[in-house]
Automatic annotation (TrEMBL):
InterPro entries: Bet_v_I/MLP (IPR000916), MLP-like_ligand-binding (IPR051761), START-like_dom_sf (IPR023393). SMART domains: Bet_v_1 (SM01037). CDD domains: Bet_v1-like. It comes from Castilleja foliolosa. It comes from the Eukaryota. This is Bet v I/Major latex protein domain-containing protein. Residues 36-175 form the Bet v I/Major latex protein domain. Pfam families: Bet_v_1 (PF00407).
Amino acid sequence: MAARGNRATAWRTSAVAVLPGRGGDKATAGLLYSSGGGGKVKLLVAVSHGVAGDFRRASPDKVHGCDLHEGEYGHAGSIISWSYTHDGKHKIAKQLIQTINEEKKLIEFKTLEGDLMEEYKDFLVTLHVETKNNIDLVTWTMEYETLNEKVDHPISLLAFLVDLTKDIETHHAGN
């Protein structure tokens, strides 16, 4: 349990799985979050709009920037580039915001270029939030196809996204 101001947030990782997927593999992590019904609106807005300053303030050890290359932040079809540190190394990921469905609280990012593409042929990241009885289930799913059998499943990247989610929500709970 983490507390900021008068609001307390409770996180619990509920599941981590690696499964065979369409044309590749799929790794998923789910987090249960009890916020008193606030939902994940701020998380979805921050992620879909690539609010780099917000990410830098919430998680300065992880995210260093998010640049817009094409389109508009928060719109499907836009291309953004993330600068981040993962496993102690500075990395870049250029992604297409493939889908934003506000009604379903879902965002999909297709990786086009960057460090991930040195090991993976395809890499799709999906953020989905379901809310029931003031409890949010935040799910990160990665669908990927490795370039060869020696490439590990991206479990540490999944842990990175889980930790980033916690950092962002803890930051927003204090604001």
